[in-house]
Amino acid sequence: MKEKFETKHLLLKLNHKAQALPEDLFAYDHFESLEIISENLESIDDRIQKLKNLKSISINANSLVFVAKELFSITTLKTLKIKNAKLQELSDNLEVKCLDLENLHLSNNQLTRLPKWLGKLEKLITLDAAKNHLSTLPESILNLKNLKRLNLDSNNFETVPTCLLALNHLHHLSMDQNPLTDKSKEALFKTFNIWF
Question: Domain range spanning residue 58?
């Protein structure tokens, strides 16, 4: 098994019966990128903090319902993707230490809101929260001065959050497949020169 984990860039396809990450994964801490693909993985537990040199982690797990707060304590992270899962929330009550994060992808989950600590990720360039159940954004998003790309496609936005209209430094905003009112569409056109 040791040979399997000698690479710095690990693609981990879990057996369809596996509901947790393998214990031997955490005997090593040299990984810089980790991609997890699973049908039945239900949680990312607190052992994930042992992979303290990760720069990129991608989790594609359609049974995933829980992510331990320790994932957000990995200070080296630049890219975090948790997609095609069943996450319903990310707790507001955690101490975020991945302050160098540049890319956060949370598409195709069941999130009804984004956490307030999002505003602490001041180096964030890309935020993808498409295909969730969002209808609001945290005011703290105003702190994201480096945010260039924001994808909010296929959510539940009827009106445009005021804080979103203040993000005039965005290069790309997508809000397709939202039940936006005509007034909201006009506001988006006026601010970003885009029409939905």
Answer: 2-144
**What is the rounded average pLDDT of the residues 152-166?**
97
Mean pLDDT of the 142-157 span: 98
How many domains are contained in the chain? 1
What's the CA gap between 157 and 70, in Å, rounded? 30
Q: Tell me the CATH number at 49.
A: 3.80.10.10
CA distances to 31, 52, 92, 122 from 4, rounded to whole Å, are 12, 19, 36, 36
Q: Which of 125, 134, 135 is nearest to 105 (CA)?
A: 125
Q: Which residue has the tokens 């319902």?
A: 65
Percent of the chain residues past pLDDT 90, beyond the cut: 87
Which of 141, 150, 138, 133 minimizes the C-alpha distance to 87? 133
Residue 140 lies in a domain: yes
